[in-house]
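Bench log, entry 3. Co-assembly request; chain sequences pasted below exactly as received.
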Amino acid sequence: MSKYPEIADKLMSLKKAVTRFVTNGCQLSIGGFTVARNPMAAVYEIVRQGISDIHLVCHSNGQGLDVLIGAGCVKRVEIAYGGNGRYAPTCFRFRRAVEQGQIEFEDYSNYQMSLRFLAGSLSVPFIPTKSSLGSDLLRVQGFSEKIRKQRKVARKKFEVIQNPFAEEEDQVVLLPALTPDVAIIHAQYVGEDGTVRIKGLSFADVEQAKSADVLIVTCEEIVPRSYIRLDPDQNTLPPFFVDAIVKVPYGAHPTACFGFYDYDPNHLNLYKKVAKDDDSFKKYLDGWVYGVADHEEYLSRVGAAALLSIKANPVVGYAQGLDRK
Amino acid sequence: MLTYSANEMMALAAGRLIKDGDIVFAGTGVSMLAATAAKRIYAPKAVVFFETGGVDPILEEIPMAVADSRVMYGTCLNSGLIEAFSIVGHRKLHTVAFLGAAQIDRYGNLNTTSLGDYHRPKTRFSGSGGACDVASFASGVITFMQHDKRRFVEQLDYLTSVGWYQGGNSRQKLGLRRGGAIAVVTNLGLMKFDETSKEMVLAQYYPGVSVTKIVENTSFPLDVSGAAEAPPPSAEELRILREEVDPQKLIL
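Structure output for the full assembly:
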């Protein structure tokens, strides 16, 4: 008998969740934003399993995006932003891959990508906005005609139409919906009934989660049904959207998880140093991803002292006074 | 005589442009300093918010990214991207956005995407992020730049975020209902835009910086006829910046 009978069929190891749902060539979306709540444990597991030809759709994933691209898992990316705050004004492996022609890429903006996920979550084929009129986002296409015929790739990047409800001239941009094969988000809490609670900012995680065919949620803690239902105003997603639940403490490291831990400046600075060079980046992956069996072993390599230094004050949500240089 | 850095002067020059009641969209780096300084020194009733969804955080410590947990504490609302962009473009609100860029042209259009051919760039940058969106929607944009000829260019390699587009009323003709470039704050001075032509003009040069130096570091012609020397930072402005805004000296 499972400790959590209500979610027994969804609760699984990270290895199993990735093996079952993340396949070569799938369209994948990961939650979080630059230095916050990237589902890094899942990203590392995808790299360890050698999943390839991923079509990544995201807005501003810093660390997760860069590791997936750097490890050669990504064939194609639709993106708004490839940076990681002060630790990487432009993500290093993303930059290298684009400059060397190693990946197919298409640029949108953050709001546009969020709207595209929203459209997917609402089951509508496209969504209008006034954003980007006059910009090169509407002049230059990243994907070739050949790529545009591929599965899950929109036939057009966008369409500009006259507002059908206006008498006067009024241009509107239509953006194609996104319906990824898989979305992976990292949450602070999942209830033993499967309810998801994200604390702090949710970014576009909710839209990404609901736009996907399959949703994997990794979490810091699984909490009692009575707790998660005591204050449902705080909850983010109902159980029936969730296909796999994986408990992975520190599952967003080295990115932050509000209320639990801060981003890890030492690790991000180490990454900054190694990611600029192909050989040193390969050694980084060998040591931190391929060389460990799972996230527990990864965390023991990070070390208790380092994890303690980024422990968040649970009241303010971050590690006060942390040396972040 | 007070000594101060270019970053300090930039943060204050931009902060001075913020007024009470402004809803300020902040990015990373110097823009974070400027937004925080504005609220603590010039416009206590301004509200700072982030594209990630954090609205009016306390900012006891400087965030290193717009998704930093520090933008989620002491807020009036923690939300997400869709909600944040509903604020940027809201017709009831006067929103001012701080942006940065790799290239800017005479009309305040910005490039944060790439140099050279888009498909096989010489240098790839982060991309739009929320910049293109706020440039489309905000009441006005203030841009931070390092002032040199490679960055102040005749022709952008890629137009990520629209300022005054091709000048005159061309921005409105695109279908963008409001907004445009208000000012450009650099390590040398403060630029604004001509009311009719929408071309960049020099408004202020910092103490110790010559007008000639600014012109020499700009690839397009710059009207300097209305330029005046910027007031230097006061002791109190510098104290607040150093002791309250960024005591850990993460950006200063």
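Chain A touches chain B through 70 residues (CB under 8 Å). Chain A has one domain: 9-128+178-307.
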